[in-house]
Amino acid sequence: MVSSQTIAARQRFFGADAVDPASGAVRDDRVLVSWFGCASFAVAMGGVVFLLDAWVPRGLTSGYVPTTPEEVAALAPEAIFIGHGHFDHAADAGAIARDSGAVVHGTAEHCATARKQVGGAELACKELGSSASPVGERYDFEFASGISVTAVRHIHSARTARREGPDASTPMRPRPCLCDIRTYPPSFADAGHLARNLLAPEGGVLLYQFRLGDFVLTWHDSSGPLVDKAPHVLEVLRALPASDVHIGAVQGFNQFTNGLRDPRSYVEALRPKVFVPNHHDNWLPFMTARGEAFRTPVHAELARMPETERPEIRMLFDRDDYLAPGRLSFELSKS
Q: pLDDT digit string (tens) for 99-138?
């Protein structure tokens, strides 16, 4: 039995029809994914609730994403999976883990950062290597009710030299969108939270794949220039089962030089049926734009793939698709 706050939070994130109003149990025949900004998602997979990243975007705005760390913690997630430790991915990990009892999964540095956020309080944490672990290393383990997890070390987005020739991608330079600061001005508390976490270390970068029955979900919160700096990681990704759903970062530092080539390289390696771009909303208005700016470039970039290998693209747009039950809902076969 869970609290009334958990039932309310789960109904808001996953939909009233997906959550038992008495027990708070989430239906176990679906994979339900709810976006709460940047690269953060709440997932219910076979009835098991967990988080991918743990930050409610705020600091330069307040209320742009219509939830709070307290409401996310009220989901009572069993785990938090951290992709990397920068503030826009893990700044709320410590508080959410402390308040919910969720087990943090990430590198040793991610765990240390989460504990520091809550004054050194002890948090349950499964360490998956450290920032010194070799790129391409993988970690395989079981998590809650038969979900198999593979974590793979890869690299953060980074600018590399412009590649010319027939395979070159068109640079993408969306104009920063300051409009949302006027509509959602930051509170003092939110600005202070951002300032305290702004310089959090990366601590290594992890991609996660979750498998339950025949269903495969893969997520990563950064897309590095693997083509240039770590091509062997693409081979590691190709060795994984093909993804039913791939949630992958498209905004990154290399978009200004090599467009969306790096996100495409992940899609090509992971072979998804459905691709969901993330880390593409207006979470940092001095630098970012709304997700609509990525619609045409994402479709154009993936159109370079052979038609038979091209996934369905499921775009998410801020603010309409924050906490949008049913937007990312997939049938789960446990056979």
A: 999 999 999 999 999 999 999 999 999 999 999 999 999 9
Q: How far apart are CA 211 and CA 217, in angstroms?
A: 6
What pTM does this model have? Answer: 0.97
The answer to whether 110 and 94 are in contact (CB under 8 A) is no
Helix pair angle (108-117, 93-100), 10° resolution = 80
CATH number of 4-331: 3.60.15.10
Strand spans (E) along 225-323: 245-249, 274-278, 312-313
Token output for 233: 């990681």
Residue 32: strand, helix, or coil = strand
Q: CA geometry: angle at 281 spanning 294 and 314, to 5°?
A: 55
198-253 tens-digit pLDDT? 999 999 999 999 999 999 999 999 999 999 999 999 999 999 999 999 999 999 99
Q: Where does residue 315 fall: left (phi above 0), alpha (psi -120 to 50 degrees), or beta otherwise?
A: beta
> How long a stretch of residues is the chain?
335
CA distances from 176 to 20, 36, 261, 262, 288 (A): 42, 21, 21, 21, 5
Per the rule left: phi > 0, alpha: psi between -120 and 50, beta: everything else, 203 is left
Dist CA 54 CA 37 (whole Å)? 10
**Beta strand segments in 38-124, E:** 41-45, 48-52, 79-81, 103-106
What is the predicted pLDDT for the residue at 165? 82
Contact 72, 45 (CB under 8 A): no
Evaluate the CA torsion angle 95, 321, 3, 124 in order and state its sign: negative
Span 255-276, average pLDDT: 98
Burial level of 330, CB count in 10 A (0-12/13-18/19+)? middle
* Cα distance between residue 254 and residue 168, in whole Å: 12
Instruction: Work out the percent of the chain whose per-residue pLDDT is above 70.
Output: 99
